[in-house]
Amino acid sequence: MRQNPNFKFIPTVTASRNGSWGGEFGRIDREMLVKYVPEIRGPLYYLAGPPGMVAAMRQLLDDMGVSEDSIKTEEFAGY
Fold this sequence. Notes:
By secondary structure, the chain is an alpha/beta fold. It has one domain (12-75). 25% of the residues lie in helices and 18% in strands. It is built from two helices and four strands. The chain has helices at 30-36, 51-63, and strands at residues 12-13, 24-25, 45-49, 71-75. The protein has a two-stranded parallel sheet with strand order 1-2. A two-stranded parallel ribbon has the order 3-4. Helix 2 links the parallel strand 3 (45-49) and strand 4 (71-75). It is globular. The N and C termini lie far apart (30 Å). The model has no long low-confidence stretch (mean pLDDT 88).
């Protein structure tokens, strides 16, 4: 399987503080994005999840100066 060197996967959870967890804790916010994305306005962002989460992430990216053309979304509910 080929790997994409431009793809970054940063697992994060909001509720559990399991001692064996090796990823990030907390909601994705400005601080977390700046930590992992050197140039905020460069990449494409794919947002998928519950409508409230998608709206909050879209607003965060907009506030950080990301172009609307660089944000792709899909909302889902009833999971």
